[in-house]
Description:
By secondary structure, the protein is α/β, with parallel strands linked by helices. The protein has two domains: 2-111 and 145-188 and 383-408, Rossmann fold (3-Layer(aba) Sandwich), CATH 3.40.50; 191-380, Rossmann fold (3-Layer(aba) Sandwich). The chain is built from 17 helices and 14 strands. Strands 3-4-2-1-5-6-7-8 form an eight-stranded mixed β-sheet, with helices on both faces. Strands 11-10-9-12-13-14 form a six-stranded parallel β-sheet, sandwiched between helices. α1 crosses α17 (384-408) and α10 (228-238) packs across α15 (350-362). The radius of gyration is 22 Å and the shape is globular. It starts with a strand and ends with a helix. The mean pLDDT is 93.
Amino acid sequence: MKVCVVCYGLREQNIRLQPWRYISEIAYGLFNKNLDVMIITDGFSERHYINGIPIIHMRKLREFPFQQNKELVSLIKSEKPDIILWSVSALDYLYLNIFKQIHVPIIGIFTGPIYRLSDISRIGSREIVNNIRFLFVHIVYASLPPFFIRNVVNSPQLNKIFVMSRKNKEIITDIGGNQNKVVHIPVGIDEYDFEQSEEYSSIISKYDLDERSFNILYFGSPLSIRGIDSLIKAVSKIKNEYSHVKLLILSRRRENELSREELATQDLILKLGLEKNVQIISGFLDRDEVKNFIVFSDLIALPFKIVPSDVPTSILESMALGKTVISTEVDGIPELLEDGRGFVVKPNNEEDLAEKIVFSIKTRGLTKSMGKKAASYMQTYPRWHEVSEAVISEITEISNKRYLNEVVL
C-alpha cells in the first residue's frame, strides 16, 4: 500500500519540533511497517530522503482560495497513492475543491490547537504585537467562523479526521463536526524517554550547577508566549523567602534566531535582580543533555500562554522521567496532568505559578509522589510504534470499505 503525506513546512532542521515530529513519526512508523510512504511539503529543495522516506518539495501547497492547484493534483495523481494523510486546518474550507479532484481516500490531520480569539487576546495586546509573526496564523484561524472547521470535518472528501488531543475532538464535535469521523490519535513517546540518565553529574561541573538548590527547569524557545516571562516573575515573588530557588532556562534557539527574544529575557532577569536565581543556557542541546537537565531538576515548569502546536512533547518527556510538571490550562495540557499527575495553573498568571512553586518546595515528598504518578501513567501511554499501528488500523478500515463499495458497484 502506498501512503502519501501532505504537510506544510517540513524541514530536516525542525523534525524534532511539533507538529513536524508528529507527522514524521507517523510516516516513519508506517515506513517501518513496510508501507510505501512519501511526503509532499512546500519549499524549493530538490527531492531528498529523511530516514529513507522520499521528500518532495513544491513551490506552493495552496493557491488562492477556491482556485485549483493543478501542479499539486498532478503530482499526487502521478504518484498513485492508495491513501493520503493531509495536514489540514479551518482554512482548508477554502480549498475543498482540491480534495474533490483527487479520487483517493483522504485522512485530514489537525496538528494545531483550535483557539478562540479570547484565548489569544487574554495574553494582552502588547504581547500579541511583539509576537505577531508567531501568532498571526493562530489569529487568522481563530477569526474564522466555526462552520469553516465543521465543513472541513464533514466534507465527504475527507474519510477521517485525526486529532492529537481529546480537547480538539471535543471542540470539533461541539461545533457540529461528525464525531464518528474524528479519531484521537495521540502524540507518542519513545522508549528512550523512559531511560533514566545516570550521567547528569557531567552537567553539574559543565554548567556550574548546585544540587543544594531547589532547581526548576524550563526548556523550550525564549518566546514570551511560552510563559517564560511569567515564570521569571513568579521566581521574583518568592526569591526573598526561598533564596535557594534556582531557575534553569534551556533557551532553545539556533544562532541568529530568537536573539531579540532571549535578550528580552535577560533584560527581565536583570530588571528583577535575579542574576543569582536564574541561569540561561542558550542553544540547541542534544537529547541526552536535555534529559540530564530533566533528571537533575526538582520541578519542571512549562507555563504556556499559547501552545504553538498541539500537545507539547516536553511535558510527556518530563512525565516519563518521573518529574512533576507545572503547566497551564491551555489546549490539551490539562488532560495530561489531571488526576494529580502534575500542577495546572492559569496562563499568564505569575501569582498562581508562584503559589504552586512554593507548595512544591514545602511539600517535596508530595511533589515527588506526583512525579511517580506521572511516570506510572506514562508507562501506559502509547509509544510511537503503537501510534503508527493505530493509524494503520484506520487506513485498513477505510481501504476495506472502499474495496467493498467497488465490489458492490
